[in-house]
Amino acid sequence: MILEALQYLTTPCSFSVRKMGYLSEWIGIRSRYSRCRSLWEPHLNHCCEVIVRHLREHPEIRSVAFCGSGWGLDLPWKSPEFQRLDKIILLDLIHPWFIRWRSLFQNNLKLIVHDLSGVISQVDAGERFPEPIIDLKLKVDLVVSLNLIGQLPLMPLEIMEKRIHPSFEEELHEWARKIQRKHLEALKEWAPRQIVISDIDEIWRNLSGQIVDRSDPWYGSRDFEMDEQWNWDISPLGEMEKTRSKHHVVGVKVFS
User: What is the rounded CA–CA span in Å between residue 91 and residue 114?
Assistant: First the structure.
């Protein structure tokens, strides 16, 4: 708790990001990883393998941007394919101090703080269902959306749900789809090659292992099949709930 409090007080981020709960959630992810590391490692290794394999198959790629770099847990830092890159750009709302420190000494590493949902400032200003705007000029050989697209609408939706009548559920979901579509459009603008690594199914199981609930992180907006997928046991019994565990199906899609 003391470490988390220190992280909250000392991590650089905007007032809006703090007020809307992004910083608390970001710190919570790192704490959850510490508690569930053995369950998370297979998923994180899969993510690294996807990135390394693509870089190995395409040695002409010299610059890569990672959207949703977070704590850097799903980046293949030590792989030769990753280290040979001329430019590595990490994009997120928040960058931890150890990555900020690393960027001071690693010349090919650049950090960009940016709202990849495109709606945070408008939501913070009280707008209702604002159009997502991702105003960022970027040109790289490859861009990777890293366990991000299903997360992009979550915090804005949570805040918007408190402001409107429950009958507006379909409007909320359509807004979430707009945010996700805008993200995919931005990826295509930034690079000729794109890799999307994302949750495609969220499953809750009871004490007996039976499925009791599930949801679509894409809100029905995904209109393509994934190239490969795997399971991620993200939350065992007792982590988020006493009587239910949470599991994700993660998919990979390569666009070129």
Answer: 6
